[in-house]
């Protein structure tokens, strides 16, 4: 019993016990890293190809890098995914009665997973998917 508990403890410490794969990468647009961070809403979203499950989201940082999370947990289940990418600059409200206004900076086709042409086959363990967006908004 002590050996079983020790083995289970090692799996939990290693992060292997939750069945999730780690996914990260870099997003570029016209050859330059996408700039996320303050004042931006830049994200990569993975949708299971079969339409099941919760979408997994990665916020794009100031260096174009993202890491996928599902809810409060890092990673996502292995499988085939459709991917959408959206990069918006958030403009402050014009007055106190207005809402912030997002300005889409990425090409429209990447906003919809079924139209983006972006796919990912996520395997067990650690995965890297870099996405190179092309075109004008």
Kindly, what is the distance between the CA atoms of the first and last residues, rounded to a whole number of angstroms?
A: 60 Å
Order of helices and strands: HEEEEEEEEEHEEE
Class from helix and strand fractions: mainly beta
Radius of gyration: 18 Å
Notes on the protein architecture:
- The structure is a single chain.
- The chain is mainly beta and 137 residues long.
- Strands 1, 2, 5, 11 and 12 form a five-stranded mixed beta sheet that branches.
- Strand 1 and strand 2 form a beta hairpin.
- The N and C termini lie far apart (60 Å).
- It is built from two helices and twelve strands; from the N terminus they run H-E-E-E-E-E-E-E-E-E-H-E-E-E.
Topology readout:
Layout: H1 2-14, E1 22-29, E2 32-33, E3 40-48, E4 56-59, E5 65-67, E6 69-70, E7 73-74, E8 79-91, E9 101-104, H2 113-116, E10 118-122, E11 126-128, E12 131-133
Parallel strand pairs: 1-11, 1-12
Antiparallel strand pairs: 1-2, 1-5, 3-4, 3-8, 6-7, 8-9, 8-10
Q: Which terms summarize this structure?
A:
five-stranded mixed sheet, 2 helices, 42% strand, 137 residues, globular, mainly beta, 12% helix, five-stranded antiparallel sheet, single chain
